[in-house]
Amino acid sequence: MNSKFIMKRKRPLSLELEVFACAGDYRNVPGREEGEYRLELRLTNRTGREIRFDAVEVSFSGNSKGGLHVSVKDSPKGDQGALIELAGGEVWIRKVRTNGYTDEILRESLGRPVTISISINRRTLAVDGPFFGILPALEDLPYDPLDSWDTNAEGRLEGRRIMMGRAC
């Protein structure tokens, strides 16, 4: 008997992710200052329908075992932990930093590049991603003197665009 397997077509990719990186200074601990990665994430809904998610998971890693995992869980209206509803054509912009973990991440990398992984999730299911990229060395990034989370701040520095790929 000859059996055929029918492969279902994977749904079209729905979100466009752009990542821009800068270097900055982490100064939140008295007597301690270190460099930090500052990323601006821009998610654009490229479909004609609404997309819902509740978290963007960002992982910074210097090796396969450790790293820093950051969960961004705020809505465009600023409601912590709320469901984010992104209409067709709408853009969601947020910043993520390595804060006081930068030195540890760089130490773990043993001179290799720091990698980032970004997933868009709803509960525990992936809505899109993961996206993967490699961060340049801090000294190779534009320096951002502003210590602002405001993505519309006057004098805001446009970071270096990071090439992001998807897992197959």
What's the helix and strand layout?
Elements: E1 15-29, E2 32-45, E3 51-53, E4 55-61, E5 68-72, E6 84-86, E7 91-97, H1 102-109, E8 114-122, E9 125-135, E10 160-162, E11 164-166
Antiparallel strand pairs: 1-2, 1-10, 2-7, 3-6, 4-5, 4-8, 8-9, 9-11
Describe this structure in words.
By secondary structure, the chain is mostly beta strands. Helix content is 5%, strand content 48%. It contains one helix and eleven strands; from the N terminus they run βββββββαββββ. The strands form three sheets. Strands 5-4-8-9-11 form a five-stranded antiparallel β-sheet. The chain has a four-stranded antiparallel β-sheet with strand order 7-2-1-10, with no helix packed on it. A hairpin with a 6-residue loop joins strand 4 (55-61) and strand 5 (68-72). Residues 5-12 have low confidence and may be disordered.
Produce a short descriptive summary.
The protein has 168 residues and is mainly beta. It has one helix at 102-109, and strands at residues 15-29, 32-45, 51-53, 55-61, 68-72, 84-86, 91-97, 114-122, 125-135, 160-162, 164-166. The chain contains 1 helix and 11 strands; from the N terminus they run βββββββαββββ.
Mean pLDDT: 81
Q: Structural class given helices, strands, pairing?
A: mainly beta
Helix amount: under 10%
Please give the order of strands in the largest beta sheet: 5-4-8-9-11
Please report the distance between the alpha carbons of the first and last residues.
Answer: 32 Å
- What shape does the CA trace take? globular
Can you count the helices?
1
Q: Point out poorly predicted stretches.
A: 5-12
Query: How large a portion of the residues is in β-strands, by DSSP E?
Result: over 45%
- What gyration radius follows from the Cα positions, in whole Å? 18 Å
Query: How many β strands by DSSP?
Result: 11
